[in-house]
Amino acid sequence: MTMRTLPNIGVDELVTRYELEFTQREVVKILGKQLVGKQLFANGINGGGWDGGPGKKNYNYYKEVDQDEALISMEGTTQANSKSMRELATVKVPAITQSWTIQWRDLETAKSEGFDLLSFHAIAAARKIAEAEDMMMVTGEHTGFECYGVEGLATATTINTVAGGAWPANAIDNVLAAAAALQTDGFHDLPVLVAGSVLIKCIKDEKNAASDFSMLRYLLDNDIISGVVESSHLRTAAGVEDTTALLVDPDPNYLYYVEGQAPKLTVKLDKHDDLFCMLRETIAPVIARPECICSITGLSCA
């Protein structure tokens, strides 16, 4: 009988370095396909990344505070006692982790049969990581989902809100009202519509009376919105689905994420010779100016 010592993954016969690197690439592919929230957030402020590292648990930033209105005069008069204060804010940067164990006999059998059991489970884990990350970015903490108070697009403090109604009948008027609210706060770029599949289908299937196109096509072709993001993770603060939609100006100065560690796959043998696997990332969305978001509330599809 030979004694097996705890091997160094990468040279051990169970998992080669090639298999580990291949699985890591497959994980990245899956995450890239499934992550919706990252379409609206830049990587670091203005896309400049973040060098906080995986150990940093908090990110400090300054929220933008609106100044007084500019004065027009012949003398160049300045505002009286106008102060522009910087508002310091902190967001926690949690770790999102999914772990699993592959029994050693299952791994041996899979390898003898030519089946990549490591990638099979890692891809499933990547989907769970993507679901948690998207929920945090799109909605943030809400009833039934805890993430250390991190705010997402739907739950950020001081976002704009407009009352909506039954779609598709009120869809265009509701979106126009939300766009007007963004413009009032100085956001004049074409916004992106974010909604769940029920509401998107509701306006995608219904034709606009003034054209032969769907209402969704009408919103896009008439430069009311620049694009559509369909998310199954949009909720109200109470955790209710399909009653709200968002109009978002994805300015990289105001919407970005900080990532201390990109999704990383770790594998090692445990004391039972089973393969312990873990997929982990540290990330948090930063909403530096919530006024770039407008929530359309009270929606339904009739």
CATH-defined architecture of the largest domain: 2-Layer Sandwich
Low-confidence stretches: 1-12
Give the tally of structural domains.
2
Distance between the termini: 71 Å
Q: How many extended strands?
A: 13
What oligomeric state is this?
A: single chain
SSE topology string: HEEEEHHEEHEHHEEEEEE
Shape: globular
CATH class of the largest domain: Alpha Beta
The CATH topology assignment of the largest domain is Major capsid protein gp5 fold
What is the percent of helical residues? Answer: 25-40%
Q: How would you state the average pLDDT, rounded?
A: 88
Task: Report the sheet with the most strands, covering strand number, pairing sense and barrel closure.
Answer: 5 strands, mixed
The class by helix and strand makeup works out as alpha/beta
How many separate helices? 6
Structural Rg = 24 Å
The largest sheet has its strands arranged as 5-12-9-7-8
